[in-house]
Design brief:
The chain is mostly helical. The protein is 47% helix and 3% strand. Strands 1-2 form a two-stranded antiparallel ribbon.
């Protein structure tokens, strides 16, 4: 079995630009500044990273599975380890920082308006932006979801369909109680909210705010919340004239919460761990401990990890939030590439837990 230091050297010697950059900046102890600078330049020049950077200019919407959606483009760039101030990222993302700061964002109402706001916040925060407008909207969102979490209510779905639910919609999903969707916007904590909270800068987390975040996380970890449908149900958006029903989605379902991973959720298993490691309450929860043990089942003889390829998918068209853009290497067909990505991701988790083998 190789030593931990030898494992890191192996990642640096054999890994591509993203693996080298993330190794140096997140798990390598005291890297040389010259090595970090060279790794950053190599990352920014890598063809598969440039591809995603160039896609920023083609973003036309916030939410969808396409490569023209901010949630996937920005989500992927953060996976590569890009942060504010790197290359021309600030210039490329300036329109989105201006969008969230526009006065209209404070008055926009309805389900899609709230979702777009949250997605913009999530991905700017994950890339290291913490402008005043981002903070203002993020804390307002925290207040909204905290109201529901503090209530403890999980009786989300109405027992009967409202009379105005279109016939074509009946029998497919149930309708969400309007108490959880004031003005047609989702007040239920969802997976986007958890990613947002996980990306909060430490200096935002005063004791009262940290307590609010913890309340939300505790709520999401309950059996009752985890039993909710992945797509919560239909929401009546009263901000529209006439009102319209949408499917409200993206429950923060935790893969493996009830035992074995399922085919339908294994793709975002690792991504969920990387999200929930940010929260002390989650780190001490049974689900998290069992999930770490699940990762260790895939440690191989030389001391690295080789996770199932299905846990680290990279698809041409997919939702980042569903784990569809987990690839780091440009060429991923070999077992060695997946071993490098697996090892790096596990080491980063252990680092966040204070359990790095290098300590």
């Amino acid at each position: 079995m190789t030593t931990p230091r030898e494992t890191l050297e192996w990642l640096l010697e054999t890994g591509g630009p993203a693996v080298r950059w993330l190794t140096l900046t997140s798990v390598y102890p005291d890297p040389a500044p010259r090595a970090v600078d060279a790794a950053q330049q190599a990352l920014l020049n890598a063809p598969h990273v440039r591809l995603w950077l160039d896609r920023i200019d083609g973003v036309t919407q916030f939410h969808n599975s396409g490569n023209n959606c901010l949630e996937n483009v920005a989500g992927k760039l953060a996976e590569f380890g890009l942060r504010r101030g790197m290359g021309d990222l600030d210039v490329r993302l300036a329109p989105f920082r201006a969008w969230i700061a526009h006065p209209d964002r404070a008055t926009d109402r309805g389900m899609m308006a709230e979702l777009n706001r949250v997605l913009c916040l999530v991905h700017l925060l994950r890339l290291g932006y913490n402008d005043d407008a981002i903070r203002e909207h993020a804390l307002a969102r925290l207040e909204t979801i905290h109201r529901v979490a503090a209530s403890g209510r999980c009786d989300v779905l109405l027992p009967e369909d409202p009379a105005d639910l279109p016939k074509a919609y009946r029998g497919r999903h149930r309708v969400v109680d309007p108490w959880f969707t004031p003005g047609g916007a989702c007040a239920l904590p969802d997976v986007h909210d958890l990613h947002m909270l996980a990306a909060f800068p430490e200096d935002w987390l005063t004791a009262p705010l940290a307590k609010m975040v913890d309340t939300v996380v505790q709520y999401v970890l309950t059996e009752e919340y985890q039993a909710l449908p992945r797509g919560f149900g239909y929401v009546r958006d009263d901000s529209l004239s006439p009102p319209r029903y949408y499917v409200l989605g993206w429950n923060a379902a935790l893969p493996g919460y009830r035992g074995a991973l399922e085919r339908s959720n294994q793709e975002y298993f690792v991504l969920s761990l990387e999200m929930m490691v940010a929260f002390p309450t989650a780190r001490s929860h049974r689900w998290f401990r069992e999930s770490l043990a699940r990762l260790d089942e895939h440690r191989i003889d030389r001391g690295s990890w080789l996770l199932p390829r299905a846990w680290l998918p990279e698809k041409s068209v997919a939702y980042w939030v569903a784990g569809g853009h987990m690839g780091l290497e440009q060429y991923r067909r070999s077992k060695a590439a997946i071993e490098r990505e697996s090892t790096l991701r596990v080491l980063r988790l252990l680092q966040r837990l204070g359990r790095s083998p290098l300590r």
